[in-house]
Amino acid sequence: MSPGSVKAPVIAVVGPSGVGKDSLMEALLERIPGLVRQRRIITRAPELGGEDYDAVTEDRFAALCVAPGFALHWEAHGLRYAIPRDIDELRNRASGVLVNLSRKVLLEAEAAFGTLVILSVTATPEVLAERLMTRGREDRAEIERRLARAATPMPAGLSQVIEIDNSGQLEEAVQAAETALMPWLQPERV
């Protein structure tokens, strides 16, 4: 198999709400040539903002599940999320593909994608609480639920997990993630 035919790794960015996954991903995309991001499909109204995603109705989501239009899908926080099958096209031309995933689908993702590198982004409970309150998307009860879920452990049996602490300056977390990812990227596409 020639080097160009090897698929780039899927880099799953996971962590609790408010930990800074999107900020970390944006910074990595700016710094690492050839790195791309796979947009998620979500049953959330487009005007609610947050990450850059493709909004679909419940009916459309269900139809894509049957099609099958997804490489991976799951439910969380009362919404349905998916990674489209076209992620393979990105993997053929990128040095790596970043995707925001839920911890509960990591074993399934590893089976689906083969080369899966997991960036587990963490922060102290105090930092998480402050960030969630600042963004203003959740009420106090939802913030408490999200903080309680933040302590959920990673599934056992995962091959490659890199922990990144994002409690401090974003630049520190970005540098740590960039250094840890370099051995996994497709060098001829960087």
Automatic annotation (TrEMBL):
<dbReference type="InterPro" id="IPR027417">
    <property type="entry name" value="P-loop_NTPase"/>
</dbReference>
<feature type="binding site">
    <location>
        <begin position="15"/>
        <end position="22"/>
    </location>
    <ligand>
        <name>ATP</name>
    </ligand>
</feature>
<protein>
    <recommendedName>
        <fullName>Ribose 1,5-bisphosphate phosphokinase PhnN</fullName>
        <ecNumber>2.7.4.23</ecNumber>
    </recommendedName>
</protein>
<comment type="similarity">
    <text>Belongs to the ribose 1,5-bisphosphokinase family.</text>
</comment>
<comment type="pathway">
    <text>Metabolic intermediate biosynthesis; 5-phospho-alpha-D-ribose 1-diphosphate biosynthesis; 5-phospho-alpha-D-ribose 1-diphosphate from D-ribose 5-phosphate (route II): step 3/3.</text>
</comment>
<feature type="domain" description="Guanylate kinase-like">
    <location>
        <begin position="8"/>
        <end position="182"/>
    </location>
</feature>
<dbReference type="InterPro" id="IPR008144">
    <property type="entry name" value="Guanylate_kin-like_dom"/>
</dbReference>
<dbReference type="InterPro" id="IPR008145">
    <property type="entry name" value="GK/Ca_channel_bsu"/>
</dbReference>
<comment type="function">
    <text>Catalyzes the phosphorylation of ribose 1,5-bisphosphate to 5-phospho-D-ribosyl alpha-1-diphosphate (PRPP).</text>
</comment>
<keyword id="KW-0808">Transferase</keyword>
<keyword id="KW-0067">ATP-binding</keyword>
<dbReference type="GO" id="GO:0033863">
    <property type="term" value="F:ribose 1,5-bisphosphate phosphokinase activity"/>
</dbReference>
<keyword id="KW-0547">Nucleotide-binding</keyword>
<dbReference type="InterPro" id="IPR012699">
    <property type="entry name" value="PhnN"/>
</dbReference>
